[in-house]
Amino acid sequence: MSQPQTVDLPLAPPRRSDAPVLAADIVERLTYRIGKDPRVAERHDWLSATILAIRDRVIDHWMDSTRSTYEQEHKRVYYLSLEFLIGRLMRDAVSNLGLLEETRDALASLGVDLDVIAELEADAALGNGGLGRLAACFMEAMASVDIPAYGYGIRYVNGLFRQELHDGWQAELPETWLADGNPWEFPRRESSYEVGFGGTVDTVGSETDGTGRCVWRPGERVIATAFDTPIVGWRGKRVNTLRLWSARPIDPILLDAFNAGDHIGALAESNRAETLTRVLYPADANPAGQELRLRQEFFFSSASLQDILRRHLQQYDSLTNLADKVAIQLNDTHPAVAVAELVRLLTDVHRLDFAASWHIARDCFGYTNHTLLPEALESWPIPLFERLLPRHMQIVYAVNAIVLREARAAHFDEASIRSISLIDESGERRVRMGNLAFVGSHSINGVSQLHTDLMKETVFANLHRLYPDRINAKTNGITPRRWLMQCNPDLFALVRETIGDAFMDDAAKLVDLDRFADDPAFVERFSAIKRENKVKLSNLVARRLGIRLDPDALFDVQIKRIHEYKRQMMNIVEAVALYDQIRSQPDRDWVPRVKLFAGKAAPSYLAAKGIIKLINDVARVINNDPAVRGLLKIVFVPNYNVSLAEVMVPGADLSEQISTAGMEASGTGNMKFALNGALTIGTLDGANVEIRDQVGRENIVIFGMTAEEVGTRRAEGYDPASVIENSRELSQALMAIESGVFSPDDRTRHADLIRSVRERDWFMLAADFDAYAAAQRRVDGIFADKPAWHAKTVRNTAHSGWFSADRTIREYASEIWRAG
Ligand code: GPQ
User: Any transmembrane segments, and where (predicted)?
Assistant: First the structure.
């Protein structure tokens, strides 16, 4: 083992963090780091100064964590993800360090309100949806359960677009989270690597005497430079690193060209490099399919692996023990090319033989699959892959030969072999990234039990047959710090007062709340907090949209990406049906309801954008119809992001988790709602199944077809027209929409959307509609019986501790990574 470069130098003493010391530090940062006189400082300057002061407290723990991993030779976990949907970090860091009150007091002594400046922090949206948010929750949880871990991703200059509604249509605007600087990050110019593209592959040395090897000579090269963000675990126990790569050119400007008058050409290379890490693809569960995307994938995979190997070699001088000290988790197939890149680095650069490299790679990698939707599985046309990554193409073929040989030895038939192959030969030849990730990993996990079972039966059936020990389930989790303690401080305080502090370190202990579910005094306080959170949400809606909500109405919330399989459409059609009923039976004792929606649609996903417009069209008519007397309101809150979720989740009574069974791999929003005391209305899909098992079937409202029934129904030949004909409610609602009741300015606007339901209905809205509407009326019934409702909401909170990301991470650590 080589020695660390710096030994026995004393560490700076940890800083004191009582309010006066913190206040002095904040003023010092403001003055000397930001260069502002406190008397003229603006709120944003106070925010930056506060973050810098907090960041300094983080650094002590950060260095301790790094040193102890090194000294104790712990295995390191590397989480490779093209997305980290982190949101704001200040409250998270302050709260995990246990400095919330001190910071509040320090700022108050300076005449600054913590809550006001916290709102100004940019919401880092380097992700699309659940997959990216999971990566962020995992980063926090890995630090909390003391796993030495690094997250690797891309430092996009523009994260997920900002959504505005223009006349009810989604408009996309660039998001500029770095505009005011990012005080959290540390640029690391010294951690820079070259990443190549294109070019040729040469063989050097002699094939016969064993010195022969391949050398890739890229035609194009860029530099990847690291930016580090510290991620603080609960109680500041450990601080891990989120390392995001930014691309820059080797030559920022070609001076010869510039001097010769070619000003644009002189900067072409620079622009090309910087384009690489400019924007996040807004594609969620459907592949972007463009060359730039493959370049992004390879760029961050290669830089990360070079960094991992450098760190390992610096400590151990040898790569033969790599898999003992390194676990690399692939977050979906986006970094799957890392499998080929690691083999290349080990063989071509570090001169291991191919078989050894291949085994080491497989022992290092684990792959998490996040969807079964066939159209979502990534694959790249061979000509593109070969042109951009010629050496990796050879490696893919070499690996494929091994895999196909194993399949033949196991007597697989030709059809099975075709499905296992890394090359899809069914049309234009393509590299299948899912198969590459699978064969290059010792563990392949699904994100809920149901999703894992279906993986074995569907997409990976033949690979599972060939490698039966690899697929395993790791049900997703969420960090209870952000999703309870921070977003719902009043509920957090009540729980603490009621059952003590143990749940703060072990969320499963929330179960101690169960016995208070029928205690009227407790329930009254629990429900008062929910009401207060609903008031806060109402205030946000009033501020942003000028719509007034009644906080005593049932707040029914569906927030997530807009996708046909998630069936926001079924929800809004049900609203239309309910509207119809309220008008035709005005004297029934309707439960007042507010249906809240939020979510972004991929800019190229026209059906999803049509659904957003439909929701807004329906909202305008219903909200303005005096006959409804406020019994039903529809609200679409624009620009859904992590910060908005932190207000909407605590303010919800009902959580809509209504995907077509078999299509939502897990869901994680469902867990956040349950934890914050909302009831779920949902199908038996993804983690909803496990939520039912945890909270008990009497505390959740389940409806509709099971995944198996969906499959059977499809196989039998599903005919939506006859289903619609047999449902009066659904027929009328669909007719109202297609006849232009909600779009008087353009009566045929929603005709295509409705026609797709009538003619194909791939997501089986019609088949589940009556069951859904009936389930909604069951919800009304329970909501009207306040003691029954409240007892159920308490039990949802009490039994959601299992969905802590700490539990999930412990499972990954012991069963996949063998770390920690
Ligand atoms: N998910 Cl493939 C995404 O958010 N984006 C994606 O590209 C893919 C999956 C989601 C998935 O739809 C949810 O069911 C999961 O809960 C989430 O990943 C995290 O596993």
Answer: none
